[in-house]
Design brief:
InterPro entries: UCP037465_Znf (IPR017211). This is DUF2180 family protein. The chain is α+β, with helices and mostly antiparallel strands and 69 residues long. It has one domain. The chain has helices at residues 4-9, 60-67; strands at 18-19, 26-27, 32-37, 54-59. The strands form two sheets. It has a two-stranded antiparallel ribbon. The protein has a two-stranded antiparallel ribbon with strand order 3-4. Strand 1 (18-19) and strand 2 form a beta hairpin. The longest helix has 8 residues, at 60-67. The structure holds zinc ion (2 copies). One zinc ion binds next to strand 4 and helix 2.
């Protein structure tokens, strides 16, 4: 699959490294941002978050949107 943002920029078919967890578009290493994410346990006893963070990929546009405001 090719990066959607590269396609828009006319950079051609750059191979994507992941899929944005927000908009589900394919992103390359340049346009994607891999960010740690804390996993929450559903229900149960004790602490509600896991010891180690997971990760997710967001595209440049969604990353900027999350950082804004
Ligand atoms: Zn790209
Ligand atoms: Zn996105």
């Amino acid at each position: 699959m090719k990066c959607y943002d590269c396609d828009l920029d006319g950079r051609g078919a750059t191979a994507g490294i992941g899929i944005c967890s927000r908009c589900n578009l394919v992103v390359c290493a340049d346009h994607g941002h891999v960010t740690p994410t804390v996993l929450h346990l559903s229900g149960g006893m004790g602490k509600a978050t896991r010891e180690r963070p997971g990760r997710r990929v967001v595209c440049h546009t969604c990353y900027a949107a999350e950082r804004s405001a």
